[in-house]
Amino acid sequence: MKVRILILVFVAIGAATGWHFYENYRAEHEPLVLYGNVDIRGVDLGFRVGGRVSELLVDEGDVVKAGDLLAKLDAEPFRRELEQARGSLAVAKAEEELKKAGYRKEDIAEARAQLAQTMAIAANAKRSFDRQAKLLETRGVSRQSYEDAEAALEEADARVAVAQASLTEMEAGFRQEEIDAAIANAKQAEAAVSLAEIRHADTELKSPSAGIVITRAVEPGAIVQMGSTVLSLSLEDPVWVRAYVSESQLGKFPPGTKVLLTTDSRPDQPYHGKVGFVSPRAEFTPKPVETTELRTSLVYRLRIVVEDSDGALRQGMPVTVRPNIEPDHE
Fold first, then answer.
1. How confident is the model at residue 330, as a pLDDT?
2. Are 232 and 45 a contacting pair, CB within 8 Å?
3. Looking only at Cα atoms, what is the longest distance across the chain?
4. Rounded to an integer, what distance in angstroms lies between the CA atom of residue 208 and that of residue 260?
5. pLDDT tens digits, residue range 171-229?
6. Residue 105: burial class (beta carbons within 10 Å; 0-12, 13-18, 19+)
7. Distance between CA 329 and CA 326 in Å, rounded?
8. CB 58 within 8 A of CB 233
9. What is the domain partition of the chain in residue ranges?
10. Into which CATH architecture does domain 43-75+202-232 fall?
11. CA-CA distance, 115 to 99, in Å (whole number)?
12. What is the dihedral of CA 244, 247, 251, 257, to 10 degrees?
């Protein structure tokens, strides 16, 4: 009886040991299978300016390339705005050139002539005043006449001072502060033109990347606000797959690992991919990919870049992921 018990104990120990080694061998040598879903990025497209939609050049399901023209706004208001900005720039540039060049030679010559004229008038007023002063000493003229001559002389001298200051200013040219202000105004006008050009260009909506139009939100004639969605685009590149791996198998899928991706629609024609990102944070397995074993397990999210997507992959499509043990398909 004791011998039987010992035999059973040894058999149980041997079976447990064998099972342990088998499980370790299977974990190390059997290919790991993961499950995930296709993740295709999309973008909502809108105009950077508001206005009336004049044309929509694509419809839902259309395939577009990067740079393709998708829609237009009525550009007339923005064209007028640009013309106005360019006119203001021309005025500002002319003012800048005027300030830098200074006064014309003709203006300076006119100022000199004006000074000479006022000096002649002042000289005549001085002679008249001197005569009135002598006559006043001999009482040959009234006090009022003397004072009138004195006032005329003071006025003539004042006019000479004004004419001299005007000539000096013209000969010296504009002050540096005035020139700097004119330059600043011209730069401000240039910025206004650049902004008007950008606003005018923004009346055309172009595709930022290759993709498929999945939503056409407005129709021609609609008034749209700046930034409101006009079209939604599903991007063709990059196409990713989200998959999840347990901590015990995490080391088998470092970034750069080559994998094969199969879908239910084409199980015998796998796609090729590469692990591009491994989340540093553990999380519970999402329901769309959970299995009985992983239901309560913490897993790590992988982002796999599909290298040979052919447009057949769709957002949310289930995908099976296996390590790629084939020779490099490239």
1. 47
2. yes
3. 171
4. 30
5. 666 778 888 899 999 999 999 999 999 999 999 999 998 888 999 999 999 999 999 99
6. exposed
7. 8
8. no
9. 43-75+202-232, 81-198
10. Beta Barrel (2.40)
11. 23
12. 0
Determine if the pTM surpasses 0.85: no
H-only helix segments in the chain: 2-29, 76-101, 105-137, 143-172, 176-201
The residue type found at 51 is G
Count Cβ neighbours within 10 Å for each residue of 3-38 and write b for 16 or more, e otherwise: eeeeeeeeeeeeeeeeeeeeeeeeeeeeeeebbbbb
Short-list 75, 65, 311, CA closest to 207: 65
Spatial CA neighbour of 299 closest among 260, 222, 223, 245: 245
- Return the structure tokens found at 26: 């299977």
Extract the tokens encoding 251.
């080391």
pLDDT in tens, 133-174: 777 777 767 778 777 778 887 888 888 888 887 777 776 667
